[in-house]
Amino acid sequence: MQSRFRANFNPLNEAPELDLGQRLRLAKQSFSALILVALALLPTAVLAQAKGPAAPDAAALTRLMQSVVMVQVSAIASAPSTKTLGPYRVGSGIIIDRDTIVTVGYLLIEAETVNIVDNLGRQVPTTIIGQDPVSGIGVLKALVPLKQKPVALGDSDALAAPQRLLTLGHSEPLPTEILLASRKPFAGNWEYLLESPLFTIPAVSNWSGAGLFDNRGALVGLGSLIVADATNEPFPRPGNLYIPINLLKPVLPDLLKFGRRSGPPQAWLGVHSQPHPEGGLVIQRVSAKSPAEQAGLQEGDRIIALQDQAIVDLADFYRRLWALGPAGTALELSVVRQGVTRRVPVITSDRLQAQQRPSGV
Fold this sequence. Notes:
The protein has seven helices and 22 strands. With 361 residues, it is an alpha+beta fold. The strands form five sheets. Strands 1-2-3-6-5-4 form a six-stranded antiparallel β-barrel. A hairpin with a 7-residue loop joins β7 and β8.
């Protein structure tokens, strides 16, 4: 039976002129080409220097493989996130406790229902028990007992490039060996920053929520994105970004108990932006009912300064934004619109509070 769920979130899924079948075929062709290019560019010297091998013993490999589940999400029909993430989403999740599954957080944004499909083919209803937009990780709780053993959490801080690792997504018969290529900072256009993510090569197509495992079979990362350049070298090499699992460890108790990390929430503006050739950041999209919308910011506006200090890039903007204070902090942006610069006061808010929730929640 053909699934109605979206295989992974990527720009190919947003092409309105293509139907779903055409988009999935195009995505498959694109990813196959990316993998071939990356393998061709992978130098023998780098492979020779890589730590490894990434080969868990039989017992660890068995536990690794049965810990990976499919995550199926139906979003709230009226939710704004359906325009970019789709109304139906599918990715992977990893069992880390007898009834606890971790996955990439964007799959769960404004979700109405969430089910998992385990390695035995059982469909199991789950509930979202925690979301952490800072790390980009979400946590699920199975509503019926799971038969699988959880996988251990590894130490992502101990990983250094180059290093051989394993990745496994849902419905895959065996893990794939990949190479940790770099740990450079990553700034996403949706107000998201990872200082030391796990960039791997070659690119794999089943990345969304996939597990990244070390040579003991321990979970060290969660798949988040496909990227055009996963290395620090002159020639770009496509690969994937995995969220380091150590970002989950200190906040997991909070997520299980409170549904989010404790303490004041991180400041959020509600803009998607990218660097502008003339400096600053150009706004690509403004989230509905966000501080940015309330302040009158629009698509195409160029943000050139925060608190009268010029913006260098996305990472610089986010670091200084969050250093000003948590959600509720007042700040001032310098914005250029149609050649005119003006000062725009904004009061930040909490990203999670802006998301739609299922009826009755």
